[in-house]
Design brief:
By secondary structure, this protein is mostly helical. It is built from three helices and no strands. The longest helix has 26 residues. The radius of gyration is 27 Å and the shape is rod-shaped. The chain starts with a helix and ends in a 9-residue tail after the last helix.
């Protein structure tokens, strides 16, 4: 009977430790997508182009 309680305790400890490690990894940016920035330049920026102000010409 002692062995069952011991194994349950170890299982709970390992589960909580894994959960804390996962939370830490998410907050520290371990799951950020390293592939996205190189594809971002291929996105169509019609919205940004429409809202941008045209450059004023400099008079000579």
């Amino acid at each position: 009977m002692y062995t069952i309680f011991f194994l349950i305790g170890i299982g709970l400890f390992v589960g909580v430790a894994a959960w804390f490690l996962f939370i830490w990894a998410v907050k520290s940016g371990q799951f950020d997508d390293p592939e996205a920035p190189k594809y971002r330049m291929l996105d169509d920026d019609d919205v940004a182009a429409k809202t941008a102000k045209p450059l004023e010409r400099q008079e000579k």
